[in-house]
Every structure is written in C-alpha cells, then in structure tokens.
Amino acid sequence: MTNYTSSLLQTLDERGYIHQTTDAEGLDALAAKQIVPAYIGFDATASSLHVGNLVSIMLLRRVQQAGHKPIVVMGGGTTKIGDPSGKDDVRKMLTEDDIASNIKSIQSTFERFLTFGDGPTDAILVNNDDWLGKLGYIELLRDVGRHFTVNRMLTFDSVKLRLDREQPLTFIEFNYMILQAYDFLELARRHGCRLQLGGSDQWGNIVNGMELARRIDGTELFGVTTPLITKADGSKMGKSVDGAIWLNDNMLSSYDYWQFWRNTDDRDVGKFLRLFTDVPLDEIARLEALEGAEINTAKLALANAATALCHGEEAAQQAEATAQATFAGGGLGEDLPKVSVAQTDMPITDLLVTIGFAASKGEAKRLIKGGGVKIDGDKVADEKLLLSPTSEERKLSVGKKKHGIITAN
C-alpha cells in the first residue's frame, strides 16, 4: 500500500483498483485540494453492459464516494469505429439507430450505481458523438492527426498484437486511438475533466489523450488503469460457462446474477468483495479469513451486496430466499426460470432447450446420457421421455446449479 493523502487514491489503492498511474504524486495532490472530474468511456456495442464492465462502473462509484465528479462517456461516435483493444476480429458495424437504442438501454445501469444531477460531484452522462460526429475529416487530420506518429501507434498493444498474429486491422480501427485521445481533450475543455480511468488495455489510449491535450492546450491530465480482473482459475471476469453475465435484468435475471456471485471461487471472495461491493474493509478481512464451510457466509455476503447494488435490496433478498428454498429446503423458489408443458405431451429434450438449459436437442441428449438431468430429484434416464401436463409444479435440475420449474398451461 502507498501512503496517499487524497481519499480518492487511498480508496482505489486499498480496494485493489490501481495497476498503473501516469503521475500518482501529482494526481494525489490535485485530488487532495479540489474536486477532480474523472471519466471512463463505454462503447454501446450491446443493449446491456456485463460483469466485465463492472470494475469500470465501480471505479466511477469510488470517484463519487471520494467526493469527486464521475463522467460517463457513452461512445455514440467511437462505437461506429470499434475499439481494437483486446480484440482479434473486426467489430460488427452497428447502425446509428442500433447505437442509440443500446445507449438508452444501458443508461439505467449507471443510474443504479451513481447519483446524477447538477451538483459539483453529481455524475453526468455525455455522448462523444456530440463532438466526434461534427468533426470534419480534413480538420481531424490537420489539427489532431499531426500529433500522432505511425511509428508510435504501431507500438501499442491494441495494434501490435493484431499485427503479430497476422490478423486484420482495418484503417478505421487504426484511427480509434486518435478519436479516444480527442475525447480526453474535448472533455477537458467542456467539463474540466482531469482524469481518465480504464482497464490496463487502455493505457496507450489514455497516454495519447494526455499528450494530445498537453500539446494543443497545455493542459495537465492524469490517467489510472486497473489490473486485468481474472478469476482464480485464470478465466476472464465477465464470462461464465453459459455466456456473458449481463447487468440488465431483461437479459439475465437477478436470481441468475445472484447465483453468479454465490458461485465465486473461495480464492476470489475477498478480492471481489473489495472490488464489487461497498462492504467495509474490516468486515471483508473478517469474511475472507473464514475457512471450510464457513466461507459460504462470505459468498452469501458477496452475492447479496453485489446484487443489491445492481438490482436493488429487494431483488437480492428474493434471490437468496429462492436459493434457500431450492437448495436447502428442497422447495421451489419464485425466481426460478419456468417452462410450461402445453396440453399435449412435450419431449424432455424440447423442454431443456425451451428453458435455456441446453442450446440444442443434441446437447440435451448428451446431458441426459451423462446423468445430469433430474426431475424432482429423480434422474432422467430416457432421452425420449415425454412430459404430460400436470397441475403440480415440478423441479427440473441440470447438475447442481441449474434449476427451473415445470408448470402446466
């Protein structure tokens, strides 16, 4: 731990957010004496953000908790280009209507984590298409492009890794770093922004923006990056065996979100409590010291706190109650996914696909052959089983973690 004087860097350091800083001493001094507007950009490539974006959202939350001003930058302009950072393939191009729809859908997530308003430390949300969309190509080349050398741009990981793997990097993607650098310059001009935060893969883009602002306006800016957040098994944060862990509840139920956190590896509980919840550090120290079966207490605390932040206290409590009824009491919780058997018999394979426990009938058959499918605790052995409508609800399970309810119309 470093002895910072500002509550901003103290908090980021204590909770494990800091990987690199451009000028820690200068930023610490600035944050100790005045409100520092800080931004993170989010491209609108989908209608929801996912857990992989959560460390960035929590960073902005920490900025506000420390008495500073968070700026959420939606990439209405940069999404049209596509950030090559960490990508092996060219991004799919979205229409302007797609991007606008995604931004509208994503906005509600930030409102759960941040306080928006007109006050000095209230968060604001801006769209970089407001300035990038008005930027002429010749103007960009003349006023901004001349501050970048191709030699330097080729050294950045986002470009270098693609070229080393002999994977295509389009000219439009090559220009992404120039546009992101210009974002930092515009945010400094429009909102007095002094700090950009981001993942470790954004280091080059952040430094570019700082240098551009210094050369054009003589403004001193700062950057902080977070370490790559991985799970104890080495896998990337934000993914599960079933796909992305979305933050919008219309794409992933609050119960499944709660289960994601409840199933955290024992080795990750302390780290995730620090990064993704507001649980006090002394309580986290107590929880992560628990051993054996008691570590489940810490996992419950993580699941409840993380879900409450994203979906609200009531959703967290309901998810825990559903899990308790399903796993401990052998009952059926209200939040479990449901599938209805119509008036005619329904093949078990169709039912598994309909409820989302198998991607295809072939996968459903493999699950049954492997002995992983149960109805009311009884193993299903026949892959041709037909289920008849019944007035009683039954529990459908796949493995130890997937549970649903079979109902009748």
TrEMBL record:
PROSITE patterns: S4. One of its GO terms (cellular component) is cytosol. It catalyses: tRNA(Tyr) + L-tyrosine + ATP = L-tyrosyl-tRNA(Tyr) + AMP + diphosphate + H(+). ATP binds at K239. It holds the Pfam family SYY_C-terminal. GO terms for molecular function: ATP binding; protein homodimerization activity; RNA binding; tyrosine-tRNA ligase activity. A motif ('KMSKS' region) lies at residues 236-240. Keywords: Aminoacyl-tRNA synthetase, ATP-binding, Cytoplasm, Ligase, Nucleotide-binding, Protein biosynthesis, RNA-binding. It is found in: Cytoplasm. NCBIfam families: tyrS. Belongs to the class-I aminoacyl-tRNA synthetase family. TyrS type 1 subfamily. This is Tyrosine--tRNA ligase. The gene is tyrS.
